[in-house]
Amino acid sequence: MKALKKTLDVLDFLMNKGTAGVTEISNELNLNKNNVFRILVTLEEHKLVEKEEETEKYKLSTGCVVLGYGFIHKHPLTRLSMPVLKGLRFRLGESVNLAMLDDKQQYIIYVASEETIKPVKVKPREGRRYRINSPVSSAKAIRRALRGEMGFAFDHEYDEKNGIAGGACVIRDYKGRPIGAVEVLAPTYRMPLDVIDREIKPLLEDAALDISLKLGYWD
């Protein structure tokens, strides 16, 4: 189990760092360099990492993408949400995203999205993790919705030229537990506060309830 934990620590470090050499990984994770090298060789054999020829540093490889997409597209939340996301994007005309809450309810992870066809798009990075209590601006509406009791929250930056507006509503499982959220994002000038309250909120609540019911939730 210790060997497995070390391997997962290396993968997690590369995910956050991007690229790193054996020495850097060894120093940051307090692991023996020979152990790090053996771990990287094994991961490389399984196409989970690859070495850059010029720098001889390691980075995550295509095998991680395959594993990630395999999980995402077979997960009930994603599979049952996609038709709802498509319909919501069609009705709103803006980008709609799906975020998943991890089992320990510490992180949210963007797992799917339906992009607007409008020229200016606001889109989070799929696969990116955000701490539920993080003070950073990313995923504000989702984090507020998941932390609050109302199940809905919005974020509205008052910079009309470059600001971002968003609304999010909680998705619940068959036990009523929050497991994710559906979110709409757009530039502020396309989503003023009155539109969020009058048009966006009811549609988001309907979409989140639809997905929740498909997952066995009963209000």
Automatic annotation (TrEMBL):
All residue ranges annotated as the HTH iclR-type domain in the record: 1-62
Any single biological process term in GO: negative regulation of DNA-templated transcription
Pfam families: HTH_IclR
SUPFAM superfamilies recorded: GAF domain-like, Winged helix' DNA-binding domain
Keywords from the named record: DNA-binding, Transcription, Transcription regulation
Domain IclR-ED: 63-217
Residues making up the signal peptide according to the UniProt record: none
Any GO molecular function: DNA binding
Protein's recorded name: IclR family transcriptional regulator
Organism field: Hydrogenivirga caldilitoris
